[in-house]
Structure formats: structure tokens, C-alpha cells
Design goal:
By secondary structure, the chain is α+β, with helices and mostly antiparallel strands. The chain has 2 domains: 192 residues, Periplasmic binding protein-like II (D-Maltodextrin-Binding Protein, domain 2, 3-Layer(aba) Sandwich), CATH 3.40.190; 217 residues, Dipeptide-binding Protein, Domain 3 (Dipeptide-binding Protein, domain 3, Roll). The chain has 14 helices and 20 strands. The longest helix is centred in the C-terminal third of the chain and has 18 residues.
């Protein structure tokens, strides 16, 4: 690989400096004196795809904008915290009791009651495709005075965390009165009330003065859906939006040097990995898998191939989660890789040729595949790239009819707990075990989570599981994705690595 351009190195240094100093990862930047009752305009990356249906991923937009809330919140360490419920107790193995917060009013003026919560939970549990966080839990709810009893088919040590998922947000009973999806206009409990919602254009919200918590610092927020990254950057440069998310790399350095603009970067729980089919030759041989890991220069992938728009991965989880690895990234060693290949029987007299698949839905993946191909060649492996459509590739992947695949995966889509992804992606019977990795030691470690309710203890297991995957080379994590945002003329904006909260009571215009 060629040396990284100066511009790209500067981006990387800026990203790493931001991470080291926790820039944008928990501390509100000071960008001037707050002006009361201002209006803030935000440019969002993703538009709703299901008409703001609260039981779908559209719920993320609603929680980001401070319009709806869940029974349980989470803190920066991904631990459960009081939300619309102030406390909870596991009264039986399959039953939890959630005590509701007093004095909460929906945006339509009706009070938060146990019956209202029961109705909301029964709705999301009863839809054809419940939110992923509660899918398969067979969740039921029953009013119990000022509390709600929530039952599951099997003991669930992390039910409070499940009820922190945006898809379990509680709306007023009036939201469910129609025949279609629940209405989110004027039916939430958050610090801002939705007054207009257009799934193609954006959302307008106003401060809800009946909010139970700290009063919003803004009088209103206008959120515009700008899925094209170039259009988002242009809108910010033109002053059409005050906050913009998901900046493209070319805009980052320009805005970092622009007066009065605050650029913040946070890691995300999305990881691009090189999946290796361990159920068939050549990757059934762990020596070959380790040779691939040694041949790949993860730092060069992040700094050069992606021009600093990612972080090199030391393991499957990254700095976006408390248990993620932040240690040194394994160094590339093509000579050691060639030695391992020789031990496995591959070399000049028996060259190794493999199929390397990826897809173009995420534009960085073909770039990564091309760079990986070059790195593997340095160790004597010929990789034949095929770029296709993921939907067509998935059946082949699940059936184990592939060699290696560069794929991007969000490891914590809506539940701040890794048990689900570790089970589905890495246990012997996992439904999405693309690496076709199977380790009784790993399975036993993950199985123990069912009896482990303490978040800190669970996070320790997640970290040990990641170490085991790295030791066994169950795939090769390549880079972690980062999100970059910019603000101008506002204060109190703190990007959330979990992408769940954008508007808080601290957000305000400055003057």
C-alpha cells in the first residue's frame, strides 16, 4: 500500500484525538451563550421507511428528536436507567414489575397510566413483526396498580434493557385509535411534541411545557431528512441546517477549519469484517484463517483505503461500547502468514486461490475488498473478487457455499446487550453464523448469560467472548465505522454513539 496522503492522516489523527479526549462522546461542547426559546434545524441521514410506525426502526427518529420515551432508559455505559418507569423488580422468573413514574402527561394531555402502558406494549408485542428487542419473547403485560407486570415465556434477565429499545416507546391511547399505524403526532411523552410529520420531508416539533423532566432549551426543532451525504453537507454550508449528521469525509477537514463550526466524531457499533467459512477448506484449517489475519493490515485499511473514515479493529466490538477492545491493533506480518500457509500445505507448488465476495450497498465495502485482495497477494493468496447484491448472496452465505466475504454489521442495532448477536452470529447453532464457527467453549460462555442479570458481569462476558473469537480467528474484524457531525450556532449538542438521542434539554441556540 502507498503511504497515506497527508490529508487522510490528518483526518485519522483528528478522529483518534477526538476519541482519546472523549470529544462528542459524553461532554457537551461549549459553543457560545444559550439564547432562550430558539429554533434549531437538524439535517438527518435517514428518513422513516414505515410512515413513523413506532414498532419499526422509524422509532429511532422519534427517540432521537426527544418526542417519545420508553419505560427504561440507558446510560453511556449501556446500563438500564429509570425512564417512564422509576424502578423494576423481577418478582418471578418470568415476571417483572415496573413502577411507573408519577406525574407524566402525554402530549395530548392525558395521564400516563398502567392501562395506557399495557395497551402500548400489547400493541408492539402483537404486530406481525415485533421490534427485534422483544421478538420471540412472547411478551404480555398486565396493569398492577401504579405498575405494570410484564411477563415473558422464559426467564429473561435483561427484560429492562429490552424495554429500553426505541420500538417499545409508549404512546397515548389516542395514538392507537385508527386502523393504520399508531399516530405519533401529539401522542408521545418526550420533552418535544411533534406538530407535523412528513416521512419524505421532515418533522416539526415544539417544546412540551408539561414535560415531567428538565424543560427543553429550545422552543422548537425542525428536522429535515437529507439522505444524500453531499446534500447534507451543502445544506450545512448554506446555513439551512444548524446541526448535520453523517458528514462525508471530504467535508470533514473543510468544516474543521471553518470558524464557528464544531465538528464531533464518535465511534459506532458497526464493524466491517472479513468473514471466513470455517466449515470447508481452506478455512476449516485455523492455520489458514490465522494466515489471513496476519496478512491483513487493519490500520492501513482504516487510514489509507478508507481515508480515515473508520477505525482499525482490534476485535469484533470496538470503542463504541464499554466492553469493546481499545488495545493495540494486531500488526500485519505477511512473512508469518506465508509460514502458516506453508504449514497448511500451501505455497508455490500448491497456490491458494479463494473467492472473495462483497456487495456495493455500502460503498466502502468494495474498497475494502480490493485492499484486502492486495494484502492477501502479499502473503501468496490469490483472491478473486465478486461484487453482488447482498440479498442474492445471503442464501449462499447461510448455506456455507462461499470462501470469504467482506460484510458490514451493526452489532447492537437496538438492544444495548451483546447476547443476541453473540448467539446468532457465533454459536454453533446460531441463525446468522456466517463464519460457521463452532466452539463448545464459546457456546458455554454465551449460554451462561441466561443466568447473569448484572450488566457489568454481562459486559465482562461479552469482552471475554470477543477475545475468544479473536484467538480462534472466527473471521477478521477490519474496521469500525465512525459518525461525524457538525454544529453551528448551537450549544449542548452531544452525538450519541448509540444513535438513540440527539435532542436533549441542553440543546439551545447561541447568540
Amino acid at each position: 500500500m502507498h503511504p497515506a496522503p497527508t490529508r487522510s492522516r490528518a483526518v485519522v489523527l483528528a478522529l483518534l484525538a477526538c476519541l482519546v479526549t472523549a470529544c462528542g462522546a459524553g461532554t457537551a461542547p461549549q459553543a457560545g451563550v444559550a439564547v432562550p426559546d430558539g429554533v434549531v434545524t437538524i439535517g438527518l441521514q435517514f428518513a422513516p421507511r414505515s410512515g413513523f410506525a413506532v414498532d419499526t426502526d422509524d422509532a429511532f427518529v422519534l427517540t432521537q428528536l426527544g418526542a417519545v420515551e420508553t419505560l427504561v432508559a440507558v446510560d453511556g455505559e449501556r446500563r438500564p436507567q429509570p425512564g417512564l418507569a422509576t424502578e423494576w423488580t423481577q418478582v418471578e422468573p418470568t415476571t417483572w414489575r415496573f413502577t411507573l413514574r408519577p406525574g407524566v402527561t402525554f402530549h395530548d394531555g392525558t395521564p400516563l397510566t398502567a392501562d395506557a402502558v399495557v395497551g402500548a406494549l400489547r400493541y408492539v408485542a402483537g404486530v406481525a413483526a415485533p421490534p427485534r428487542a422483544i421478538a420471540g419473547a412472547a411478551l404480555t403485560a398486565e396493569a398492577d396498580g401504579d405498575a405494570v407486570l410484564v411477563r415473558t415465556a422464559a426467564p429473561d434477565p435483561i427484560l429492562p434493557l429490552r424495554l429500553s429499545a426505541p420500538g417499545t416507546a409508549i404512546l397515548a391511547p389516542s395514538a392507537y385509535a385508527g386502523d393504520g399505524p399508531p399516530s405519533v403526532v401529539g401522542t408521545g411523552t418526550g420533552l418535544l411534541r411533534i406538530t407535523e410529520a412528513d416521512a419524505a420531508q421532515g418533522v416539526t416539533l415544539e417544546r412540551f411545557d408539561g414535560y415531567w423532566g428538565e424543560r427543553a432549551g429550545v422552543a422548537s426543532v425542525v428536522a429535515r431528512f437529507l439522505p444524500d451525504p453531499t446534500a447534507r453537507a451543502l445544506a450545512f454550508r448554506a446555513g439551512d441546517v444548524d446541526v448535520v449528521l453523517g458528514l462525508p469525509e471530504p467535508a470533514v477537514l473543510e468544516l474543521q477549519s471553518t470558524p464557528d463550526v464544531e465538528v464531533q466524531t464518535v465511534p459506532t457499533p458497526r464493524t466491517a469484517s472479513l468473514y471466513l467459512n470455517a466449515s470447508a477448506p481452506p478455512f476449516a484449517d485455523v492455520r489458514v484463517r490465522r494466515a489471513v489475519a496476519l496478512a491483513v493490515d487493519r490500520t492501513a485499511l482504516a487510514e489509507q483505503a478508507l481515508a480515515g473514515s473508520g477505525l482499525p479493529a482490534s476485535e469484533v466490538f470496538g470503542p463504541a461500547v464499554p466492553w469493546g477492545g481499545t488495545g493495540p491493533v494486531p500488526a500485519a506480518d505477511p512473512a508469518a502468514a506465508a509460514d502458516l500457509l506453508a504449514q497448511a500445505g500451501y505455497g508455490p507448488d500448491n497456490p491458494l486461490t479463494v473467492r472473495l465476495w462483497t456487495y456495493a450497498n455500502r460503498p466502502e465495502l468494495p474498497t475494502l475488498a480490493t485492499a484486502v485482495q492486495a494484502m492477501l497477494a502479499g502473503a501468496g493468496i490469490t483472491a478473486e473478487i465478486r461484487i453482488g447484491e447482498y440479498a442474492a448472496q445471503e442464501p449462499e452465505l447461510l448455506a456455507g457455499r462461499y470462501d470469504m466475504m467482506v460484510l458490514s454489521r451493526n452489532l447492537l442495532t437496538d438492544l444495548p446487550d451483546a447476547a443476541g448477536v453473540l448467539t446468532s452470529d457465533y454459536t454453533c447453532s446460531g441463525s446468522y453464523n456466517l463464519n460457521r464457527y463452532c466452539s463448545p467453549e464459546f457456546d458455554a460462555l454465551v449460554a451462561g448469560l441466561v443466568d447473569l442479570p448484572d450488566p457489568a458481569a454481562r459486559q465482562d462476558v461479552f469482552a471475554r467472548a470477543a477475545q475468544l473469537l479473536e484467538a480462534d480467528t472466527a473471521g477478521v474484524p477490519l474496521v469500525h465505522t465512525v459518525d461525524t457531525s457538525a454544529t453551528r450556532g448551537v450549544t449542548g449538542f452531544v452525538p450519541d454513539p448509540a444513535n438513540r438521542v440527539l435532542v436533549t434539554s441542553e440543546l439551545a441556540r447561541t447568540g
